[in-house]
Amino acid sequence: MYEITIIPGDGIGREVMEATLNILDSLTVEFSYIEAYAGNKCFKKFGTTIPNETISLSRDADATLFGAVTTVPGQKSAIITLRQELDLYVNIRPVKSYKGTKCLYDDLDFVIVRENTEGLYAGIEKYTDDGATALRVITRKASERICRFAFQYAKKTERRKVTAVHKANVLKKTDGIFRDIFYKVSEGYPDIESEDRYVDATAMFFITKPHEFDVVVTTNLFGDILSDEGAGLVGGLGLAPSANIGKNNGLFEPVHGSAPPLSGRGIANPSAMILSAVMMLNYLEEYHEALRLEKALIQVLAEGKTVTPDLGGNSKTLKMAEEIRKKLAES
Ligand code: NAI
Ligand code: MG
Q1: d(CA 17, CA 4)
Q2: From CA 196, how far away is CA 161, in angstroms rounded?
Q3: Domain 1-91+235-331 - what CATH class?
Q4: Pocket lining for ligand 1, CB < 6 angstroms
Q5: Predicted TM-score (pTM) of this structure
């Protein structure tokens, strides 16, 4: 029995969470859920977007499933606070094509490992006489652990290559450290190929030669931008899951937000949330059930009959989830 903290959040976050929990119910793994609050609805009720209780419930759980929140400018970001408080230093974002979806390539399968705690998102900005500056923080410690994670992940998932992405020709000191540490860490993994590339060229190669990538490891901002580009390669936000992982905690969430235009209509694509649950199952080392769930989703996507409007169908979120449950029952 795993204790899972669920944070449905706002808008379609709540809808895709409900659909996903319905499906998780029919797996052979048992979960007990505790619901925690975050986001804008939470702010209206409790005066904060992320109560301390949510942070402790997430810290104490075996894993956390996070839907999506509406972020109002000026309010504290719930998800960034959780990443920092739980030191979730890795953000894994797979780029994988599924049949039946609008992919630019129908056979992609690579993974972006993004540093989640520092870089240009360290949040150190100040106004100057003439504008403002932001500090780009790269520490040896964070570079070391993210590069090590990338190689460990490659080893565990039997991938052949790790590519470090940076801009060390311009950002000589910060990205110089990142690149050098990457190669130092790579010495411990002689069976895995290692290479480095500039971020601008990588942005182009994602479009022109995406098959050359296997595991990509990079700093915070570059990882944020490249992973949205990755989502664009394989059918968009409704299909993009992510994992936030630290030493003691894992939090799994779709890349998308609360999508106000879709909210309350029951037509959001639940796939990104379901694939995030697949990542959670892998994190919990429930590999068999992870594979079974992914396969059931793959079948429903490939058949293309009971899918949401963004996938070209006319099914509701819960109906698509029900169809996935049926496939699971048959497997
Ligand atoms: P968004 O990801 O919520 O939606 C952008 C558009 O993508 C939607 O209007 C919809 O057309 C499509 N889309 C997204 N998810 C979909 C799904 N599951 N099924 C079908 N179509 C889908 O991004 P947006 O509009 O920029 O942000 C809306 C709110 O969400 C904002 O308040 C923003 O701050 C917040 N946000 C929260 C995130 C989080 O909770 N981690 C991440 C991104 C945005
Ligand atoms: Mg982003």
Answers
A1: 13
A2: 11
A3: alpha beta
A4: 12, 16, 68-71, 79, 237-238, 253, 256-262, 268-269, 272, 310
A5: 0.94
Instruction: Tell me which amino acid residue 311 is.
Output: L
Q: Is 9 exposed, middle or buried (0-12, 13-18, 19+ CB in 10 A)?
A: buried
| Kind of pairing between the strands at 63-68 and 2-9 | parallel
109-233 carries CATH number 3.40.718.10? yes
In ligand 1, the atom with minimum distance to the C-alpha of 261 is 9
Q: Whose CA is nearest to atom 21 of ligand 1?
A: 238
Torsion, Cα 92 156 208 225, to 10 degrees, reads 10
Question: What are the structural domain ranges in the chain?
Answer: 1-91+235-331, 109-233
Q: Is the dihedral of CA 282, 286, 288, 293 positive or negative?
A: negative
Query: Which residues, at least 6 apart from 39, have a Cβ–Cβ distance to it below 8 Å?
Result: 9, 10, 13, 49, 68, 69, 70, 71, 78, 258
The predicted-structure confidence for 152-184, as pLDDT tens digits, reads as follows 999 999 999 999 999 999 999 999 999 999 999
Identity of the amino acid at 31? F
For the stretch 244-291, pLDDT in tens is 999 999 999 999 999 999 999 999 999 999 999 999 999 999 999 999
